[in-house]
Amino acid sequence: MPKGIDEPENYFAGWHSQRPVLAVMGEYSAGKSTLLNYLLGTNVFPTRITATNYPPIWLTYADTPYGIAIGADAPPLTFDPIDINDYSGSAYLALRVALPIPLLRDIDIIDTPGISDVRLTKKSLHMFAPFLDAVIWCSNISQAWRQTEVSMWRSFPKPLHQRSLLVLTQCDKLRNLPDVEKVMKRVTHETKTLFAQRLAVSIDTASKAEQAKGAADRDDLLKASNISALQTALTVIVTDAKAACLARPDIATPTLSPTHASQATSHSSQTQLKKGPLHTPKETTRHPTSKKESDMAKVDISKLAEIGGFIGACLVDSETGLMMASDGGGDLDLEAAGAANTEVVKAKLSAIEMLGLDDHIDDILITLGKQFHLIRPLEKTPTVFLYVALDKKSANLGMARVQVKNVEKTLAI
User: Fold this and answer.
1) Domains of the chain with bracketed CATH
2) Among residues 50, 197, 300, 369, which one has the fewest Cβ atoms lying within 10 Å of its Cβ?
């Protein structure tokens, strides 16, 4: 970690260790704000955030909104997000804004200024590169994939390329579908090693679909917008980013001293300062004690510990996030892992239903650098699943799958 306790990288590293992180990037007027507001389900700020005035804004979840301004040459300050207009300009490297928005429960999102802004150099954006799980790169389809975009994106680490999504925005501005397909063909050829996936979407058309009076009109507009493909791609990004986050070691985030906190009051007499350390733990789902919880001890999954390379395991209800049983774990937070992977199971079950497949999921495998994460929905109760973490070096994956299946047969839910 950097030497000084107030170094910006110390904050970024701490936040990244505790939360999956997605950045939205692209040139000025590429439709980043429109896309971000649609995904979040609301306009993020009451006044328009322009590319030329604001540093990157790191959005995260909190029940009560708060902000943290990370200065280039000054200690961090807390602020009320309502007063964000007071924190523009080159004096700040980043603004951390916590809001009660559902998508932010799953992943932090960094909204970056347009890369055509001369103030925002490669160096300033590269400061965030080590702390990103994925990027959604927005490019206006009318001028898709300009040389300035190519130059900037190629300067980012190659592993990040393979986890990121290129979105061609405002596809409704082209005259017809063949024009869109022509641009997509060119861009796909030019970016074949630079992104995991490419999509052309129209957020304006998707927004019109929400206002449509008839179901047929709504369905036609949604299809034309291609928004479902974007939502599916986002689900994959969130799922993979959550898995990567669970495998990261926790890094403590520096606390905000009383001296730093008091300086923030000069910006607004109405600012409500966040008390205590600026440390957001990994999200877990906790539920009040109930009869269902008291029955957890009756579910025995201890046989899973006999699997080679066993790290930990739990039995989870994907509908509630409730962990019904657990064994082992060590440094792995099983409750957080179970809660995070509920969305994986929901997405897979939903996909099978949408495809009209008369079938079931045997298991879902997530392969990390040092671990296997094996998820097995129960055959009789698919919304309940076994989650097993294994050490990659010592695990026999084929045998592990057989053993997990055998343990499932012994469970009485």
Assistant:
1) 8-246 (3.40.50.300), 291-410 (3.30.450.30)
2) 369
